[in-house]
Amino acid sequence: MHSIIIIGAGNRGLDVYGHLLAAEESVQVSGLVDPDPERIRLGRQLLPHIGDDMIFSDWRRLIERGKAADAVVIAVQDALH
Question: CA-based, 20 to 30 A from 15: which of 8, 31, 44, 70?
Fold first, then answer.
């Protein structure tokens, strides 16, 4: 099984990729990054298996951990890419 982290829990990140990945048996979303507490709350509902240590409000905190997953979905606003 491959692990994936979603950076950006808005429409693309959570509502599209989050739902698609939650239904996929060969991957597991292992982390979530978003500055909005409400989007994090919704992410926890959709992906309850993510540990507290893999929820971040800032992507820089995730990067400090080193390699934490096999892949990352970068779903922040286009201007932030």
Answer: 70
